[in-house]
C-alpha cells in the first residue's frame, strides 16, 4: 500500500515529489530573495482551501496588506473563510498597542508553537505556513536552544496532525534541513544575462523523489514547474 500524499498545489512539483507531500510533517522551502517562496507557500495552503480544509498562514516579514495585494494578482482567493492569515510582522503600532495578539507568533519559536496550539482550540488547521522561519531563528540566543525548540515545534505539529511548510533564506538553514522531513530549494541562475529558475528537492523522508533540477516559471497564475524538462545552463 502506498502512503497517502497531499498536493503542494503545483502539479509539476507534486510529480517531482512522486505524488506530493506526506501529510502531518514539516517541510522547508529555501531560496534567495524573490525566488518564489511565498508564492509556493500560497499554492500549498490554497490547495487545502480548495478541498474545504482550514489553513493558517503566518507572515513574519511581508505585511498582510502587501501579501494580499500581491497574491490576489496571481489569482489566489485570499478572502475565503477557510484561509486564516496572521500578520506577525513588526510594526510601529506594536509598541503602542499594549496587548497585540499576534506578537507571540514573532517573539521566538517556543511562543509561536504555543500560539499555534492555542489557535487549534478554535479550529483545526490541516496546513500551516510560517513565512519565513528566519525571523524566529534570529531571536534565539544559543544554537542548542534553537535546535531543541525547533525539534519540539516539529513534534507539536506532528501531534496536531497538520502539514507545515516553512520558508527560509538560503544561508544558515543547516539545523532546519536536518530536522525537517523534506527540503525544496528554489534557485535563480543568471544565464547570459537572462534569469533561469530551477527547483530541486534535496530531501524527502519516507519517499523516493526526482533529484534533478527542473525549470519553473512565475506566471500570472503563480508557479509552474516543468517536471519533464531539464534546466539548460550555458
Ligand atoms: N505575474 C508575474 N509574472 C512573473 N513574475 C512574477 C509575477 N508576479 C510576481 N512575479 C515574481 O515573483 C517573485 C516574487 O515571488 P515571492 O514573493 O513568492 O518570492 P519570495 O522568495 O517569497 O521573495 P522574498 O525572499 O522577498 O520573500 C518576484 O521576483 C516577482 O517578480
Ligand atoms: Mg516571501
UniProtKB/TrEMBL annotation:
Residue stretches making up the KaiC domain: 4-234
Keyword NAD among record annotations: no
GO biological process, one term: DNA repair
Entry annotated with the keyword Ribosomal protein: no
Domain RecA family profile residue range list: 2-63
Keywords associated with the record: ATP-binding, Nucleotide-binding
PROSITE patterns per the UniProt record, alphabetical: KAIC (PS51146), RECA_2 (PS50162)
MF terms (GO), sorted A to Z: ATP binding; ATP-dependent DNA damage sensor activity; DNA binding
Annotated TM spans: none
Cited PANTHER family: UPF0273 PROTEIN TM_0370
Name of the protein described by the UniProt record: ATPase
Annotated organism of origin: Thermococcus siculi
Amino acid at each position: 500500500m502506498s502512503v497517502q500524499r497531499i498536493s503542494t498545489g503545483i502539479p509539476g512539483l507534486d510529480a517531482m515529489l512522486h505524488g506530493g507531500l506526506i501529510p502531518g510533517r514539516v517541510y522547508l522551502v529555501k531560496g534567495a530573495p524573490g525566488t518564489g517562496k511565498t508564492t509556493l507557500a500560497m499554492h500549498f495552503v490554497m490547495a487545502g482551501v480548495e478541498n474545504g480544509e482550514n489553513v493558517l498562514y503566518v507572515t513574519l516579514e511581508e505585511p498582510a496588506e502587501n501579501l494580499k495585494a500581491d497574491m490576489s494578482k496571481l489569482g489566489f482567493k485570499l478572502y475565503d473563510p477557510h484561509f486564516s492569515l496572521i500578520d506577525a510582522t513588526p510594526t510601529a503600532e506594536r509598541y503602542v498597542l499594549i496587548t497585540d495578539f499576534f506578537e507571540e507568533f514573532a517573539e521566538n519559536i517556543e511562543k509561536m508553537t504555543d500560539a499555534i496550539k492555542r489557535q487549534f482550540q478554535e479550529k483545526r488547521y490541516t496546513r500551516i505556513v510560517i513565512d519565513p522561519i528566519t525571523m524566529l531563528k534570529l531571536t534565539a540566543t544559543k544554537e542548542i536552544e534553537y535546535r531543541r525548540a525547533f525539534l519540539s515545534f516539529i513534534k507539536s505539529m506532528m501531534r496536531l496532525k497538520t502539514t507545515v511548510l516553512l520558508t527560509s533564506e538560503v544561508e544558515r538553514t543547516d539545523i532546519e534541513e536536518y530536522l525537517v522531513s523534506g527540503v525544496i530549494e528554489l534557485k535563480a541562475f543568471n544565464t547570459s544575462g537572462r534569469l533561469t529558475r530551477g527547483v530541486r528537492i534535496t530531501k524527502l523522508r519516507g519517499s523516493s523523489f526526482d533529484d534533478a533540477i527542473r525549470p519553473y516559471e512565475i506566471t500570472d497564475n503563480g508557479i509552474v514547474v516543468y517536471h519533464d524538462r531539464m534546466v539548460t545552463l550555458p
